[in-house]
Amino acid sequence: MNRTDKDYQKYIAILKEELVPAGGCTEPIAIAYTAAVACKTLGRKPERMEVYASGNLIKNAKGVYIPNGGDLRGVNAAAVLGAIGGNPERELEVLLDMPAGKLDEARRLLEQEFCKVFVLENSEALHLVIHVYAEGDEAEVELKNAHLHIVRIEKNGEILFCCKEESRGDGLTDHDCLSVEKIYDFANTCYLQDVSEVLEKQIACNRKIAEEGLKNSWGINVGKLYYKNGKFLQAYAAAASDARMSGCNMPVVIVSGSGNQGATASLPVILFAEEKGIEHERLLRALTLSNLIAIHLKSGIGRLSAYCGVVCAATGSGCAMTYLDGGSLEQIEQTITNSIGTSSGMVCDGAKPSCAAKIATSLEGAIMAHELAMRHQAFRPGEGIVMESVEETIGAVGCMASEGMYETDRVILDLMTK
């Protein structure tokens, strides 16, 4: 792909937008970030606050621990911590430099019902409105469709900021330019200086939290179990999730708005390249492929849904393994077909420690998919959701997840909120 092509520039923009550091699970962190922006707008510590959140946001904040939040979980805790101790300038790392004493203050405020939470009915999957009040003043901040995409800021009824409506509605580069063939071309031909900064940060951050997950006790130690059994590719990704789902304050470089997906799309590729003795430049190209394949697969599904996104990220890793083993474009397409033809349908029932096990399970399928593709073996069109082409198969999965699993998502949310 030529460097002057519009698609080339879009691919660079997509990687820079999607591969960003986040401290903690991105849904409660988005809540904390919005609360911090609301309090900054208010200009003082609030006396009370109200949070209106979509069901999917509530689902993904309910069971996951918050960085620097001790044993606190849930929408209320994320909002209160963001309001009293968050630094909005750090965006998705909003809680990583929280001042001392704020945790105890947050506990007191939570006991006083300082924050009330309401469900936003019939809204986008990722939608949040936070109101804060103090001494006759009030501020309101609205976030929609992406974890940092604030669309409206008001103070005392005056609109200070209002985002113009975009076609995507999330402020990000359009993903319609992505295709497996173009991603493969881009990974092979891109100038590494255009992508190396975000990829090197992904390698460093994600490896560090994985090592923390393997060294100490987090969650139920899924990563340690896989490491003990010699399954290192699964072990590192699962260990990163063990740590971050249980409140570790180390950042992860995310993919498609998810740290679990970021760890799954990167760590197995890094370990695979090390085991094979592959040079660093080729690893960077493989990571480019893995991340963009994961993003492409997730684009048709949406940021939040009933479909577990680590299946997409694991498929990206499987494709990168095929690439590093010298596989052709056709074999990479076969890897995708084999992986999503096997693991699609794993449900998302919120962010929590069991996500580590889902990562390991998805990677088992992706590794099998890679090994079958290296033998030129792939599921055939007409077998289940496998279509005539890889792009049609990806589209079918997106349709199944966004439309077919809509009712599944509603039932999961109903069960969890009850």
Protein described:
- The structure is a single chain.
- The protein is of the alpha+beta class and 418 residues long.
- The protein folds into two domains: 24-162, 2-Layer Sandwich (60s Ribosomal Protein L30, Chain: A); 174-417, 2-methylcitrate dehydratase PrpD.
- The chain is 55% helix and 11% strand.
- The chain has helices at 6-18, 26-42, 55-62, 75-85, 102-111, 180-189, 192-215, 222-228, 232-245, 259-276, 280-299, 310-324, 329-343, 355-374, 390-404, 406-417; strands spanning 21-22, 48-54, 115-120, 127-134, 137-144, 150-155, 158-162, 252-253.
- The protein has a six-stranded mixed sheet with strand order 3-2-4-5-6-7. A two-stranded antiparallel ribbon has the order 1-8.
- Strand 4 and strand 5 form a beta hairpin.
- Helix 3 crosses helix 16 (406-417).
- The radius of gyration is 21 Å and the shape is globular.
- The mean pLDDT is 95.
Annotate the secondary structure layout.
Elements: H1 6-18, E1 21-22, H2 26-42, E2 48-54, H3 55-62, H4 75-85, H5 102-111, E3 115-120, E4 127-134, E5 137-144, E6 150-155, E7 158-162, H6 180-189, H7 192-215, H8 222-228, H9 232-245, E8 252-253, H10 259-276, H11 280-299, H12 310-324, H13 329-343, H14 355-374, H15 390-404, H16 406-417
Parallel strand pairs: 2-3
Antiparallel strand pairs: 1-8, 2-4, 4-5, 5-6, 6-7
Helix pairs in contact: 1-11, 2-4, 3-16, 4-5, 6-11, 7-9, 7-10, 7-11, 8-9, 9-10, 9-14, 10-11, 10-12, 10-14, 11-12, 11-15, 12-13, 12-14, 13-14, 13-15
